[in-house]
């Protein structure tokens, strides 16, 4: 008798459990539309962009329960076309290359119209750096000096040449060009005494190495003031950029007041990424800034206000826009920015 009752109770419990499972919403419904795995294209290991991409990968993996990993590439030209074609889903970059790729400007051989932004954020601040003892205080002081020029990145080279020209330097006549490529090589040229000045990013490990080996450094202002009439000449050829005043001691490795060229860092995607995935990527960044800051202090500048930019160089993904509208962060002005970008 006891065995019959136990069997009947077990059957009733099993039926009830099955009914509950059928009636309950699927456990994965909150991540419906997300890919099971996602690669985030970045610069090589050790670079700031790889650190940023790795941080996103960790937070997306932890919060969205997907397998997200950073995927280092040699440069933008190797992965931005893949992103536009949907062969990778996300990438970390600054605005010049997405702009050139979107419009089919060299070195990109054709337009990449499927690029979409998930978020903009903290800026990469760059400028001319020299050893302080060299006595170079303004761009015109570079006349007759050995100066590193990037021969690998057309976008970086353009920023270098335009800022030099705005400061009164004829690149072909007034300086001795030291051809370099990448992030570390040009700064090491200064360390090794092969160059007096180079273009560099604030706070990078190689700039810290320069300080450790050569002593005090000096960031030469890329413009003279906020009202510098030459400023527009530079920004016309640096889409999405702006100038930022850096007060001495307020940014890592910057110990003199100076003006720097600021490029917002983008998390990019493509138009075929699902709206739900784009929505959740934007939402996860918005809601988990403390976790990102714990990985790298650069994320202190990845504020809610900076996640949307009126100077955007590619359209935002509609899924991300939906999230920003829910947060009250997307304005009517941004609708016009988006419309114009889609028409380009």
Characteristic key phrases:
two-stranded parallel ribbon; 344 residues; 8-stranded mixed sheet; alpha/beta; D-Maltodextrin-Binding Protein, domain 2; single chain
Write a short abstract of this structure.
With 344 residues, this protein is an alpha/beta fold. The chain has twelve helices and ten strands. 39% of the residues lie in helices and 20% in strands.
Distance between the termini: 80 Å
- Secondary-structure-based class equals alpha/beta
- Give the CATH superfamily of the largest domain: Periplasmic binding protein-like II
Number of strands: 10
Beta-strand percent range: 15-25%
- What CATH calls the topology of the largest domain is D-Maltodextrin-Binding Protein, domain 2
Helix content: 25-40%
The main pleated sheet reads as: 8 strands, mixed
Calculate Rg over CA atoms.
Answer: 25 Å
**Which word captures the global form?**
globular
Encode the helix/strand succession as letters: HEHEHEHEEHEHEHEHEEHHHH
- Tally of separate helices: 12
Poorly predicted regions are: 1-7, 9-30
Characterize the structure shown.
By secondary structure, this protein is of the alpha/beta class. It folds into two domains: about 35-125 and about 265-344, 3-Layer(aba) Sandwich (D-Maltodextrin-Binding Protein, domain 2); about 125-265, 3-Layer(aba) Sandwich (D-Maltodextrin-Binding Protein, domain 2), CATH 3.40.190. Helix content is about 40%, strand content about 20%. The strands form two sheets. Strands 1, 2, 3, 4, 7, 8, 9 and 10 form an eight-stranded mixed sheet that branches. Strands 5-6 form a two-stranded parallel sheet. The protein starts with a helix and ends with a helix. About 45% of the residues are buried.
